[in-house]
Design brief:
By secondary structure, the chain is mostly helical. It folds into 2 domains: about 220 residues, Up-down Bundle (Growth Hormone, Chain: A); about 210 residues, Growth Hormone, Chain: A (Up-down Bundle), CATH 1.20.1250. It is built from 17 helices and no strands. The protein is globular and about 55 Å long.
């Protein structure tokens, strides 16, 4: 029988993802504008700084997850909120002098990334524990959307709302926008300090899964996840998903530019992604529950690969001379459906890979591998793009950087998950 606090915990966790994304997207989309207009940096330098910020978050997830295992998910979530608030405050302060301070601004961007690396694994740990607890009280044949699918929806609500709030404050300058972000994350921290239970990570997961004494030593999960060759292989293969989804922010804007299409179309594309996420995430999760994780991963990776294949092998003329946007929207739709299929599924599999070990390091390693893939994959994609520019017969080559890893993930990743699940059931 669930207690009242347990019933309240799931809405708090899902609402927290919305709040995190509102605060994040109210500020971060405007960083490129400030770097180019206030600091007069070239686009290459802007891309490098923003890339480092992304890697500071994704690349340090393993550290954040390990710390959450050691000191507790709730503790690291609260510290992460404080670090991100400090980062936003530093961004605001960098513009207060008569001559803006670039070093302070870069330090602020790194703090925002590090804050996310601290609180996101903690949130995933608590959601995984809540999902396990929900599964314990669920009749076996009943299949419902996972909490990670709902986490995607609540996060998307925040991703849509945040830029609107930032735009509304833009008239008072970026310092006001960043200051709002800092105050907002302080408020989130206070809210979570009052509402999140004080149960430590190991106890929460142990209670949810029925784990024994091994779960009471969460610090061992760092070594265990690195020794788990199957999980390392899965992380390496699944990294293709984050690399692919990141192209919505790199390859798609470049494709619009290559087709001489207005940059304003990018807003329509992201609005379409939000519509797809909000309307189809739960139906896709129901389908995933019906067909199983291995089949879901296979389907999702293939959908994303098909999206890039549209850009690689189908010319704009196939859709008519004036409808290049239709081709890009087809590609984006397939990529988004693929990500919506595999991302919640992969997150929900992490506790199954972890077994009796605490899950923070496992969640962290999954994201860190994705961050490395984005860093290296984007560099290779950009290099190939520049070396094939002007050669129409070679224009498909850069897209193979996305297509080949996704096809490998579809073939090998789904088999690996199926074998792991069979071994878990027989244990």
């Amino acid at each position: 029988m669930k207690t009242r606090s347990q019933r309240l915990e799931i809405p708090v966790l899902l609402g927290t993802q919305t709040l995190f994304n509102i605060g994040f997207y109210a500020v971060v989309p405007f960083l490129a504008v400030v770097l180019s207009s206030d600091f007069l940096l070239a686009s290459t330098a802007v891309g490098l700084i923003l890339g480092i910020r992304t890697f500071a978050q994704q690349g340090l997830f393993l550290a954040g997850g390990t710390l959450a295992d050691r000191f507790g998910a709730r503790t690291m979530i609260l510290i992460g909120c404080a670090v991100r608030a400090a980062g936003f405050l530093t961004l605001a302060a960098s513009l207060w002098p008569s001559t803006p301070h670039l070093g302070m601004f870069i330090f602020g961007t790194l703090l925002t990334g590090f804050g996310g690396a601290l609180f996101s694994p903690g949130l995933n740990i608590l959601v995984a524990a809540a999902q396990s607890a929900r599964d314990q009280g669920q009749v076996q044949h009943v299949r419902r959307a996972t909490l990670f699918a709902w986490l995607s929806i609540t996060g998307e609500i925040g991703a849509v709302t945040g830029p609107l709030m930032g735009s509304a404050l833009w008239g008072w300058g970026f310092s006001t926008v960043a200051g709002f972000g800092a105050v907002f994350f302080v408020a989130i921290g206070i809210f979570l300090a009052l509402t999140l239970g004080k149960t430590d990570t190991a106890s929460a997961l142990s209670a949810a899964t029925g784990a024994g004494t091994k779960a009471s030593k969460p610090h061992s999960s760092f070594r265990e996840c690195l020794r788990d060759r199957q999980f390392l292989a899965f992380c390496s293969l699944h990294a293709a998903d984050l690399l692919a989804y990141n192209q919505l922010y790199l390859a798609i804007p470049l494709e619009l530019e290559r087709q001489d299409m207005p940059t304003q179309w990018l807003g329509l594309i992201f609005a379409w992604i939000s519509i797809l996420t909000l309307s189809l995430q739960i139906p896709l999760s129901w389908l995933a529950a019906r067909i199983g994780p291995a089949a879901t991963l296979r389907m999702g990776y293939i959908l994303s690969a098909l999206g890039f294949s549209v850009l690689a092998f189908i010319p704009s003329s196939a859709f008519g001379e004036e409808t290049s946007l239709v081709r890009i929207l087809c590609a984006v739709t397939l990529m988004t459906l693929g990500h919506m299929s595999v991302h919640p599924t992969a997150l929900s599999l992490v506790p199954k890979f972890a077994g009796l070990n605490a899950t923070g390091s496992y969640f962290g390693l999954l994201s860190t591998c994705g961050g490395l893939a984005v860093l290296l994959g984007n560099m290779l994609f950009g290099w190939l793009l520049s070396h094939t520019a002007g050669a129409a017969e070679l224009s498909f080559i850069p897209w193979l950087v996305m297509i080949i890893p996704l096809l490998l993930a579809s073939w090998l990743g789904s088999r690996l998950v199926r074998d792991r699940m069979l071994r878990t059931r027989s244990a």
